[in-house]
Amino acid sequence: MITLGQFIIKKQSDFPYAKGELSRLLRDIGIAAKIVNREINKAGLADILGDSGVVNVQGETQKKLDVYANEQFISALSSGGECCLVASEENEEVVLLNTDVSKNAKYVVAIDPLDGSSNIDVNVAVGTTFSIYRRKSTDGNGVLEDILQKGTEQVAAGYVIYGSSTMLVYTTGKGVNGFTLDPSIGEFCLSHADIKIPETGTIYSINEGNYVHFPEGVKKYIKYCQVEDDATQRPYTSRYIGSMVADLHRNLIKGGIYIYPSTASAPKGKLRLVYECNPLAFIIEQAGGRATNGYERILDIDVTEIHQRESIFIGSTKMVLLAEEYMAQYSPKEILK
Ligand code: P6P
């Protein structure tokens, strides 16, 4: 059995100039994940179900656990001293960690502390997504320069899924590894070494309730998934949990595609580029999969706003490529004049 901490230290040798800061930062995230997991597991008992009454920057009413999770991750990063600022789904502005230990740290973190939190009240899996970047600014004034970095600049990324078991899955650009929390010892233990996503699959994840507003290319791809064809194991299975981390994790293990395209209520897509699409795209590419917005690689998309939204087609390479073909044919991107 290898714990997350042992694995991180062991892999530190992958980085010849590493002095342990990234290792300690990943450890800090693991500690916060354990604390959040403890509260999620008893959410039905404690008075932390339901809404905090606060509305977040997304205009969504914050669930009490959203607020709690955000506080825990920011507190762990601040006291850990390896991160100088955090961009969080729950905070409109960047949070500067200007404690004596953090203000000169070399890394910045983008995080969605609890994605899919509306599922907590009905006991459905939820998740945390995070990206780690190197600080670019040399002084404390480069906040946006530090956080508005392309996904290709990520040093590490990962997610935590609070499901039937709690797992932390991360990459530092040298493959993807998954760790399952053993509650009896309070440690994340390596359970899924060097995860690779199947190059194709038979599961598609999309909220078909939005069908009438989907781009024509998405409609055509959905119909392709539904046509009977034994040779390609169709019709595929539709699985949509309403918690992207859960859908993505299942597709990572079994193969499949998750699509959140533009809709009437979300003309640029619903998912946020900085702390949802980019970390999950880094993970999926490192596992051998593909992640685009239907036209362009997610990791190459210019980042101009902290809470920027983006359409996402992510999962098994062959499935994403075929969906892109339908987009090119039926919903061609306006060629910028
Ligand atoms: P809809 C959760 O709010 C989330 O960000 C993703 O985790 C999930 O896949 C999606 O939004 C659900 O959105 O519009 O289908 O309910």
N-C termini distance? 57 Å
Overall mean pLDDT: 92
What is the assembly state of the chains in this entry?
single chain
Any idea what the radius of gyration is?
19 Å
Q: Please outline the major beta sheet.
A: 8 strands, mixed
Which ligands are bound?
A: 6-O-phosphono-alpha-D-fructofuranose
DSSP strand count: 15
CATH hierarchy, class of the largest domain: Alpha Beta
Q: What is the third-level CATH name, the topology of the largest domain?
A: Fructose-1,6-Bisphosphatase, Chain A, domain 1
* Tally of discrete structural domains: 2
- Pick out the low-confidence regions: none
Strand order of the largest sheet: 4-3-5-6-7-8-9-10
* Corresponding CATH architecture of the largest domain: 2-Layer Sandwich
Q: Helix- and strand-based class? A: alpha+beta
- Share of helix, binned: 25-40%
Query: What's the overall geometry?
Result: globular
Structure description:
The structure is a single chain. The chain has helices at 4-11, 21-41, 64-80, 143-147, 216-226, 244-254, 273-286, 317-330, and strands at residues 51-55, 61-63, 83-88, 95-96, 107-115, 126-134, 156-162, 166-171, 176-182, 187-192, 203-205, 237-238, 257-260, 290-292, 312-315. With 337 residues, it is an alpha+beta fold. The protein has two domains: 4-194, Fructose-1,6-Bisphosphatase, subunit A, domain 1 (Fructose-1,6-Bisphosphatase, Chain A, domain 1); 203-331, D-Maltodextrin-Binding Protein, domain 2. Strands 4-3-5-6-7-8-9-10 form an eight-stranded mixed β-sheet, sandwiched between helices. The chain has a five-stranded mixed β-sheet with strand order 12-11-13-15-14, with helices on both faces. Strands 1-2 form a two-stranded antiparallel sheet. A hairpin with a 5-residue loop joins strand 1 (51-55) and strand 2 (61-63). Helix 2 runs antiparallel to helix 3 and helix 5 (216-226) packs across helix 8 (317-330). The chain is globular. The protein starts with a helix and ends in a 7-residue tail after the last helix. The mean pLDDT is 92. Residues 115-116, 207, 242-244, 270-271 line the site of 6-O-phosphono-alpha-D-fructofuranose (P6P).
